[in-house]
DNA sequence: ACAACGCTTCGACTACCATCGAACCGTGAT
DNA sequence: ATCACGGTTCGATGGTAGTCGAAGCGTTGT
């Protein structure tokens, strides 16, 4: 009867539209305040507060008090992974939604997945790294090769420094739009950071979409050209 | 506000305890009848029927009418993947549950994930295959090498035949107990089939656990010994 | 001190939905 | 034909959880 972890408890947390919207917003990776999330979810502030309390209590969301602000963020990569997985089946089974408009197209091309790059460009990056042997899968985990290390250093990403962090550096994260893997982990996060700080792309203010500038697109394509 | 696929719709489906129990039961991979699922979920038959209608309607479950029986099964691997992901965070955030008893220990050691082997033994198998170069990750997907093909054929698994199927042959599926990947896809299913038909292990009747016989354990270990 | 602001708590209302008993509908067996 | 069986539909009931306005609390700035 009751076996294993309690699925329904955590699923029910995501099962409310307001909370789902908040979690979607938090998939952007940046921490948000209660009022921002209330706006995002389309509910009043008290309602949002109640929901956030539940999300915290349920362990899906972490809160950091800072002065008179309280910043909410996803509790961890595992939660982000789950949200993406749910999005995957929602996408697959829910063609009754509005058909893919220009907005969805942007999401497909490139979007933020928690703190790294997903979508077609994310997958393209991942494929390139693996195909060129810059990323290799040894026994149990994905690690950059020596050539890969040099490749990243050319982008001012210090692989050695990231290695220190307790967080897994590389992960393959399954994509819901394209059905393939993209680069996750701290290395994925650093990669997205590079892309934005170099002005190749900016994060859309009201969605998780990542919109590339024309020059940024060229630079990115050139990076993968060989 | 409303962007991307509708998370809450599908999450809410999993959010009910009765439905979650049914889905857990279906993670065993075998199709079950409505009455079996009612028993599993601990609800009356009408209630179960109502839930199953919703699950079908929501696209999480497929039904196959066969005489006066109606067999229910998960709609696909993507759904199974999602369930595992949710289990993952439920496991991570829910230490308020009963502490890991012998039953949970069995689940950790080996269990069925939809139709393939998960848990420590599933991960051990996957690690061995990758470490020995029997499975290699080329540009975008995991494929058995020539040596791997021979390795599988020694177990009477015809890799060529599996390749024909429309279903992806190999997939890396993230594990909730151990935090690593195990072999999914039709090859993973064939592997589990081999293990059970050879009598190395049998599937527990009332859970997803896979219990190895002493001789089966030896045979399996020997398989991975090198 | 006082006021503005961000957020939480309280209380009351509402709506939805899970639940079950009983009746109903097919299919398969006698 | 008739009965047993698996399953669904219907109707009524009850509980639970989302919702918001108003009030309360702590922090920051003037």
Number of domains of chain A: 2
Main-sheet strand order of chain A equals 1-3-2
Output the number of helix runs of chain A.
11
Helix content of chain A: 40-55%
Greatest interface and its participating residue counts? A-B, 62 and 63 residues
Question: What value does the average pLDDT of chain A take?
Answer: 83
Please give the number of β-strands of chain A: 11
Rg of chain A from C-alpha positions?
Answer: 18 Å
Shape of chain A: globular
Run of helices and strands of chain A = HHEHHEEHHEEHEEHHEEHEEH
Structural class of chain A: alpha+beta
Biggest sheet descriptor of chain A = 3 strands, antiparallel
Instruction: Give the end-to-end Cα distance of chain A, rounded to a whole number of Å.
Output: 54 Å
User: What portion of residues of chain A belong to β-strands?
Assistant: 15-25%
In short:
The structure is a homodimer. Chain A is α+β, with helices and mostly antiparallel strands and about 230 residues long. Chain A has eleven helices and eleven strands.
How would you explain this protein's 3D organization?
The structure is a homodimer of 226-residue chains. Chain A is α+β, with helices and mostly antiparallel strands and 226 residues long. Chain A folds into two domains: 7-75, Orthogonal Bundle (Arc Repressor Mutant, subunit A); 78-225, no CATH class. Chain A contains eleven helices and eleven strands. In chain A, the strands form five sheets. Chain A has a three-stranded antiparallel sheet with strand order 1-3-2. In chain A, strands 4-5 form a two-stranded antiparallel ribbon. The model of chain A has no long low-confidence stretch (mean pLDDT 83). The interface between A and B is large, with 62 and 63 residues. Chain A binds a DNA duplex (30 and 30 nucleotides) through residues 16, 18, 33-35, 43-51, 53, 67-70.
């Amino acid at each position: 009867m009751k076996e294993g972890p309690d699925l329904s408890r955590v699923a029910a947390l995501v099962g409310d539209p307001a909370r789902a919207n908040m979690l979607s917003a938090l998939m952007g990776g940046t921490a948000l305040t209660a009022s921002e999330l209330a706006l995002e979810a389309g509910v009043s502030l008290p309602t949002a507060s109640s929901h956030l309390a539940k999300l915290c209590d349920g362990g899906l969301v972490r809160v950091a008090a800072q002065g008179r602000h309280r910043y909410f963020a996803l509790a961890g990569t595992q939660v982000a992974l789950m949200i993406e997985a749910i999005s995957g089946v929602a996408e697959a089974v829910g063609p009754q939604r509005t058909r893919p408009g220009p907005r969805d197209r942007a999401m497909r091309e490139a979007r933020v997945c928690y703190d790294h790059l997903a979508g077609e460009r994310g997958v393209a990056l991942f494929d390139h790294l693996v195909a060129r042997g810059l990323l290799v899968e040894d026994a149990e985990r994905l690690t950059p090769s020596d050539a890969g290390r040099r490749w990243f250093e050319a982008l001012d990403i210090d692989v050695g420094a990231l290695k220190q962090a307790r967080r897994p550096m590389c992960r393959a994260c399954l994509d819901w739009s394209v059905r393939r893997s993209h680069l996750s982990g701290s290395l994925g996060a650093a990669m997205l950071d590079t892309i934005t700080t170099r002005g190749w792309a900016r994060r859309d203010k009201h969605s998780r979409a990542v919109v590339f500038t024309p020059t940024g697109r060229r630079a990115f394509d050139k990076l993968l050209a060989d």
